[in-house]
Amino acid sequence: WKAMEDNDKLKRLNENLENISDRLQHLEQELEKIVEENAPHKLSVDDLFQELAGALVVALTMALSEEIWELAQRLSWFHILCVFLFVLLVANYFVRYGNRKQWAKQTVLGFIQLRLLTTAVISLVVSAFVVALLGIYPTFVSGIENYFKVVLFVATFSLIGGLGLDMAR
What we know:
This protein is an all-alpha fold. The chain is about 80% helix and about 0% strand. It contains 7 helices and 2 strands. Strands 1-2 form a two-stranded antiparallel sheet. Strand 1 (about 105-110) and strand 2 (about 110-115) form a beta hairpin. It starts with a helix and ends with a helix.
């Protein structure tokens, strides 16, 4: 009789241990999900498309403004480069220290933020394409030098749009 009673106790203990084990496994899975959600987000193809969409929207808007063409043509290369580099500097600071999206700190050459670099390249390519596609060059802007000035000036704002849309997502 005592052996049966001990056997029942062992069964109940075993069931309780299995139940505790199942609960622990469930808690471990929940903890893994929380860790994944809060892990730094590495640059992905989706992010590149977000950057492209933001850059394209702003580049189209800015490229359609005659004031932008006129200003870009009148400004010296020094001033256009200063504006572009200032925007890059501020954007770099924002990407590095102010991102709320928990972006992974991915750098090129140890100090250039990968996300900023991809957005800058996308913005330059999109701006060059948009300015040519809309016929701004050579119809309204003459000379290859002025074309590059307009492209760089439009890309300055396009960069902000690309990063902005990526961050908003």
